[in-house]
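Exercise 7.
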Amino acid sequence: MQRATLEDVATLAGVSIKTVSRVVNREPNVSPSTMERVSKAIKSLNYQPNLSARNLASQRSHLIALVYDDPSTYQMASAGYILEMQEGALRACKNNHYDLLIHPCNYRSDNIKQELISLVQQVRPDGIILAAPISGKSGVVKSLLATEIPIILLSPGKKLSGSYSIATNDLEISSTMTLYLASIGHESIAFVAGNSSHRAVSNRLLGYKKALETLKRPFVKNHVFHGDNSVGSGEEAARNLLGLKSPPTAIFAANDDMAIGVMRQARILGLTIPDDLSIAGFDDITLARLVSPTLTTVRQPLAAMAERAAQLIMDEKLRRECPELQIVPAELQIRESTRRPN
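Solution. The predicted structure, written as tokens, is:
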């Protein structure tokens, strides 16, 4: 069967070729009725745009880059949060005939700035979604902003001037989780902090401290273990915290990977969850719903955040009209890993 052309769609829809082009490229100034008519013609004819020609004509690549810290550089890494981001960004790209370039890099590398500048020069994406913790590296962000392509930061931890950021309410929701654990009877609540250079994750420690102040409880220094966001550091945290003379009855970890590491090590030590120990995490990655018992956690709307970031890159008008910092609220997910202490 001969491939349908732009002219075929225009003829069937009863509009000009230029109008079809505007619909295909998601340009403004097309009435809803015309857009619907053209969309029906596209579907009827199974029309597939010639992406190379479209990109050349519009001087756009129709490509978005998602840049994130490579989880394979961590001991016992988990890529759950990356899959959530990919899902959201891909959804937006598919709906707008864009492609998504996945670019993992080493957050600790001294060459990360030049690596990303080279990515812009060689691939020329229409924009970059920069995930945490890379989004919190001000030197990297400033260099990318100088390229003058749209840069959207996910969870940078603090507002960076001249950039668009999408985040969740890390501090407030971490305080809420700590207060929840206290409300079900836990007097001794420990916290596994993430990598201190990851500013958004650091805000979760501040939320834990805020809750202790609200409860009028003292901050106990050895009830906080500083991990690196990996499953392995969660295991190390459990060995440390559960080895205390008076171990906690609940442990709240700043991400699900570390919480799952705590769960794994607690079992090795012969503890039953949640009878002997309650465990909570943060992110709500897929694995949090698959482990047994299922993990109480904070659902960080990573997919929604990444989808919004991609939409901002594709729609210049939307960027002009929205605030530079957008907050997508998180929410508690109470599951089987927490209960009132015996």
